[in-house]
Amino acid sequence: MLLRAKERVAGLRVLAAAIALPFRDESDHLATASFVLSDIREYPRALAEALRVLKPSGRVAVSSWAPPSDPYGAAWGEWLAEAVSKPEAERAMAEVALWEDHFSQEGALEAALNHAGFSLADSEVVDVESSFTVDQFIEDRELCSGGRLACHLLGAEGWARARAAARDRFHARFGSSFRYHRRAFVVIARRPLSVACSV
Length: 199
Prior knowledge:
Elements: H1 2-8, E1 28-34, H2 43-53, E2 54-65, H3 71-84, H4 86-96, H5 100-103, H6 108-116, E3 119-133, H7 134-142, H8 145-174, E4 177-190
Parallel strand pairs: 1-2
Antiparallel strand pairs: 2-4, 3-4
Helix pairs in contact: 2-6, 3-4, 3-8, 4-8, 7-8
C-alpha cells in the first residue's frame, strides 16, 4: 500500500513504523490509525507510542471495518479461493491482517484504547458507500493480503491472467460498476492529563 501511495503522491515520505515513532514525548496534538490496527502485529505497542507522543488532552482517532456483508467481497473471496486455494488465502489473512476479525467486532477499538490508557471521547458506527468500477474494485482487492498473496504465488504472468479472469467474472455477475457498502467503527479518544507511558 505504501508503494502504491508513493506512486500517486509526489514527495511522500515514510518516517517510521507505528511501534517506534521518531517523535518526542508529548509533542503532537493528533494521532490517527485509519483501518490499520488490524494489520499491526503489535498493535498495543502502536497505541502506547501514540499515547507517548500526544500532548496532554491530545486526541487519537482510530477506525476499523465491520464484517463484510456485501456480495462483491464474498465473490472476491470465492474467486481467490479458486485462484490460490482457500487454505492459502486464509493463511495470508492470518499472517498479514492478524487482528482483522478482532477489530471487526463492535467495542474492540474502545477496549484497546481503554487498555492503552486513553479516555474515550466519542464512538460511532458509520455507513461507508463508494462507487467502484470492476477494475477499481479489483485494483483495491489486489492490495489486500489475499491479493498480494495471489500476485506472489501466481507470478506476474499468472496474476495478469487471473486478474483478467476475475474481471470477466465480476463484469458478468455485477456489470461494469456497482455501489459498495460497508459499516465502519470510528472512535476518538483523549490522552489524559497525566499518564505513565511505557513502551
